[in-house]
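Standup notes
- DV: blocked on the single-chain target, sequence here:
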Amino acid sequence: MTALLSMEEVSVHYPVKGGVLRRPTSWVKAVDEVTLSIAPGETLGLVGESGCGKSTLGRAVLGLRDLAKGRITFDGQELKNLSALDTRALRRDMQLIFQDPYASLDPHATIGATIRAGLDIHRIGSRAERAERVTETMRQVGLDPSLADRYPHEFSGGMRQRVVMARALVLRPRLVVCDEPTSALDVSIQSQILNLLKDLQDELGLTYLFISHNLAVVEHMADRVAVMYLGRIVEVAPRAALFAAPRHPYTQALMQAIPQPDPARRTPPPLTGDIPSPDDLPQGCRFRGRCPYAMARCAEAEPPLLGREHRAACWLVEEESTR
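- DV (later): unblocked, structure below
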C-alpha cells in the first residue's frame, strides 16, 4: 500500500548559543535522520522518554519546524517544494491535537468560535454551512452543540480536550498528529478520549501519528510502533510483534517499566548510567552507556535499523540473524 506520509532521513537541529554574541557553539540533534512511513488509515505509535524528539518530529511533519536535512512527503507531494498557496491548502489535510487542553485554547474565545476558526481561515462554506459543520463536529466528539457560546474555563479537562479534537477535525483532515493527547487528563477520563479517537478514526477514515511516552496507551491505540531514543528511531515493528518480543535493549527496558498489578512480578529495569547530553552524543551507539549488553563494536559504529518487518538498531539483531 502506498504511504500517505513518508519521512526520509528527517533531521531537526537546534543551536546551543554561548559567548557574548550568543553565537551557536554546538547543535542539539533533536531529530536525527528519521525514516518512517504511515499508510492511509493506520495509526503509528511513536514512543520514548521525555526529550527524545517525539514532539519535534510531529511538528516537523506539520511544517512547524524547519528541517536540517531530509524530506517529508504527504500523498506524493514533497512539502518543501510546495508554494505558499499549496502549503496553505495542504494544512487542511494535516492537523494537530495538542497535549495540554488548558494551554491550547484561547480563554477569550467561545468554544464555538474556536472550533469554527479553521473554517473561517480557509473560507470553507457559507456562514450557515460553517455553523452546521461546527454543530456536526461537536456532536461527533461528544459535545452538546448548545454549549457553543461558553468559554473554556467553564469546562473540565476532558471536555476541553474534546474541544481541541473538534477544532482539528472540523476541517476533515486526512492525517492527525496526536501529541500526548491524554497525558494531561485524569486516568478516569483518558480511556474515554482514547476510545473516542479510535471511533472517530473508523468513522472519518483518519490516519494518526500517535505520540506518547506511555506504552500501555500505545499498545491500545497503535497498529505499528516506532521507539525513539535521543532523536533516533531504535526499533519499529507491528504492535503485536513489538510487545511480544522487543528486540532493542531500550525497548525492553521500557517494557519492564510498565506498572504491573503484582509488584512481586515486576523485573527492575536493567539500565545503568545517565542519558548522554543531546549536544554531545557518544560515538557509536548512543544507548551503549546505559545498555547491559554493550560490547566493543557498539563504540565503533552506530547500528542501522536491522531486520525486515520488525527492525531494531542493535548489533545483537545482526548477530542473532547469522546464527
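- Follow-up: The chain has one domain: 5-321.
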